[in-house]
Amino acid sequence: MINYFKGKLSSVFYVWFTFFVLFAAYVMWLSYLYPYGIDEYLLMPHNFKDILLNCYYSYLNEVARVGHIYALTVLYLGKWSFVILNPVVQIIWIISCFFLIKLRIPDFKSLKDFPIFLLIAILALTVSAQPDNTLFWIGGATNYSWSFIPFFWIMAYLRIQYQNKGNLILNTKTVIFLFIAALLLGMSSENNGPLVLGWIVCLWLYSFWAKFKFKKSFYLISLGLVLGITFLFTAPAMYNRLNETKSFLYFSGIPLSQKIFWHIGHIHWFIKAMLFIPVFNFLALLICALDRDKPFAFKNENYFCAFIFFISSCILASVLFVIPLMFARCFYTASTASIITFVFLLLYLEETYNFKTVRYITMLAFCAFISFAPAIIYPYISIHKAEQNRFAEIKVAKAQGKHTLFLMPYRYPKGPNSNLTINYYDSLSETSIYGKNTGLNILTDDKEPFSVRTISNNPRAL
User: Fold this and answer.
1) How far from the centroid of its chain's Cα atoms is residue 365's Cα?
2) Are 330 and 317 in contact (CB under 8 A)?
3) In whole angstroms, what is the distance from residue 193 CA to residue 229 CA?
4) Please, where are the H alpha helices in 254-356?
5) pLDDT confidence of 344, banded at 50, 70, 90?
6) Residue 388 C-alpha from the chain's centroid
7) Hey, how many other C-beta atoms are within 10 angstroms of the C-beta on 162?
8) How many CA atoms does the CB half-sphere of 145 hold within 13 Å?
9) What SS3 class is residue 406?
């Protein structure tokens, strides 16, 4: 690889190499510090048969998402596998996001792509919904950020189809790859697949107006997405959650106006958590569209893509009003769509107004991230120390021959804002399960809510 960056390019190599090392180390460290929660102890498989049985049980009763399979596999291999794999997957995530925006991989022979690449990485670590849950927690990362990567690939494929007016010729291997990606996308979540399917239908309808036809590969890849969505939504688990869970049954009887009213508070949290980037996106799109001194904005591809992903983020954030229990991580897809919108808008402003917006915003974001990094990292160190102390208590109790042990929930400092505050679901919420894994009868103060327990005891998450 060093031969790839030889001569005058040696400094470029060190910049890219330093970034990947520091990014991987950051993700690896926080992934290691984040403790097992109740979900890990509930799902912990001891052999390959347990994985199969758990997947089957989940398909019937819980969820049919493909991320569940990822999570079980990592839990079976051990936490070390997640600590090693997660940085690699997150780097693939950034590269895939960059590919969607630029329709090419970054140019590692120069630094021209470095600012936008760095900006995507910083935004992913800070303003995507609940990073501790969606990036560093095993159950969350596998179901959110890991499962989101096919979204980038299929949306990039649709962009290329749009550019080529359906006249895109793919080799067999690429078609098979995209078919599998579409299948996984359809099984990734209840949001991602239907959204992309909606854009596929829009593109298909546009082809009649523009008078062009798609190749057979387009329909085959679309079929993969439909199959994935069908598998997810026809699973018995979906029916059971809607018709047997008390919260869903209660929520279904509430008037629509009341549900939407409740959701306004959730949307307010979402906008604040993203540092008001959705507001900037809306205002920038509106002002640029009304600027008559410049060419019609919708004819610019960066602006048009920004508009598409802004609509996507609005849809994804708004449809969540149908959920009775709103977790902050549910906004992950909407927050990622907002990040993509933001980057497209910066590129449009740079191209149209000849202002180096990407470079200056990246410098600002980098300085802010470095400034707040200690406040972001310290809670992870604190909760890891609390976990080690708990393990020590359990070890001492076993050594003394005790059969019962009273434990207190973890406490840790808040993050810089509600989005960067750890939202940890303590294993003590199911003392019988945790006790079975520790070999002790575990007691705790079950009067406390099992969610965010910061040192000030003031929950900051939804």
Assistant:
1) 20
2) no
3) 6
4) 256-273, 277-290, 301-318, 332-353
5) very high
6) 28
7) 19
8) 30
9) strand
Judge whether 185 and 154 are in contact, CB under 8 Å: yes
In this structure, how many other beta carbons lie within 10 angstroms of the beta carbon of residue 395?
11
Adjacent-strand bridge partners of 44: none
Summarize pLDDT for 78-116 with one digit per residue, the tens.
999 999 999 999 999 999 999 999 999 999 989 999 999
Q: Which two three-digit tokens encode residue 335?
A: 């927050």
Which CA distances in Å does 31 have to 42, 75, 346?
19, 13, 31
Instruction: Tell me if 292 sits within 8 A of 286, measured CB to CB.
Output: no
Residue 356: phi and psi, rounded to 5, are -75, 65
The dihedral over CA atoms of 197, 275, 104, 83, expressed in degrees to the nearest 10, equals -90
Helices (H), 36-191: 38-43, 48-61, 66-77, 79-102, 114-126, 131, 138-143, 145-163, 172-186
Rg of the chain taking only CA atoms, in angstroms? 23
114-129: pLDDT as tens digits: 999 999 999 999 999 9
Give the three-state DSSP class for 1: coil
Burial class (CB in 10 A: 0-12, 13-18, 19+), 107: middle
Polymer length in residues for the chain: 462
User: How many Cβ atoms are within 10 Å of 39's Cβ, its own excluded?
Assistant: 17
Tell me how far apart the alpha carbons of residues 122 and 112 are, in angstroms, rounded to a whole number: 17
Would you say residue 388 has pLDDT above 80? Answer: yes
The helix or strand, by DSSP H or E, that contains position 436, with its residue range, turns out to be helix 431-438
Q: How far apart are the C-alpha atoms of 289 and 297, rounded to whole Å? A: 5
145, amino acid identity: S
Residue 268 identity (one-letter amino acid): H
| Residues 82 and 31: beta-carbon distance below 8 Å | yes
Q: Which residues pair with 442 in a beta bridge?
A: 405
Nearest CA to 38 among 130, 147, 140?
140
Q: How far is CA 71 from the centre of its chain?
A: 14
Beta bridge partners of 53: none
Using an 8 Å Cβ cutoff, are 127 and 75 in contact? no
| Rounded-to-integer distance, Cα 358 and Cα 113, Å | 10
